[in-house]
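Complex 263.
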Amino acid sequence: MSPKIQLGQVSKAYETPQGPLLAVEDVTLAVEEGEFFALLGPSGCGKSTLLRLIARLLRPTAGEITIRRSTGATRPQTALVFQEYALFPWRSVLDNIAFGLEMRRVPRGAREQVARELVRRMGLQGFEDRYPHQLSGGMRQRVGIARALAQDPEVLLMDEPFAAVDAQTRTVLQEELLRIWEEDKKTVVYVTHSIEEAIYLGDRIALMSVRPRRVKEVFEVGLPRPRKLEMRGWPHFSALALKIWASLRDEVERGMRGGESAP
Ligand SMILES: Nc1ncnc2c1ncn2[C@@H]1O[C@H](COP(=O)(O)OP(=O)(O)OP(=O)(O)O)[C@@H](O)[C@H]1O
Ligand SMILES: [Mg+2]
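Predicted structure with adenosine-5'-triphosphate bound:
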């Protein structure tokens, strides 16, 4: 079968007062159906831009992106979980989760049923009527994930969803995400700048470089599923982390030396 997501020589330039800024340059990539695909790279290498291109929130300046439709599917192709908590502050937890369904004019009863089921799956029982400011960071991010899952997209796009929570909460959320993903093995594109997170969650990892901003290397993770926390202590895990770090290190240093490549 053809890949679920295909990017062919995709570039994206932002217009800036100083001229066009190439945020993604000539990326060619294929993500398989049911794959958990991690996008790894230093700050500013174009990860969020690439994700927004796949979500069709942005249009590529050049190249093509195709997402293969499941036959007969009427559900949305993609749903995005944002880097920052992008919840509606004036909506309760339940209404935040149901938002996408409301936009698609799903009747209230059906919406609520889906939202309540996700409240259960994400361990948010008892918080249905709370507002985002009344929740911890970890909970807010769980609401963000529940809102994306409520739409039952063919592809789930996640932009550093756990970057803003503390390390312990992040570990718990990663485990929860894996547990939920194991249930229906959706195609996921997951942006992170943590090597450990990419290995722990992903089937494959695309490492992005800064100059040029493109995919530098793709790594096969090769750990069995379901993933277990103790796998982080396996020699294979640390060997892969070192191998990726060797490649990422150049990029981070280049990024630290600063300056934009354009114009
Ligand atoms: N709307 C915009 N207009 C102009 N430049 C932008 C815009 N959005 C992003 N950029 C620039 O494009 C480049 C890539 O940005 P992007 O946000 O995709 O990187 P990232 O890899 O997600 O970074 P981070 O890890 O910090 O989130 C950066 O140099 C950024 O400053
Ligand atoms: Mg980003």
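The first helix runs from residue 47 to 54.
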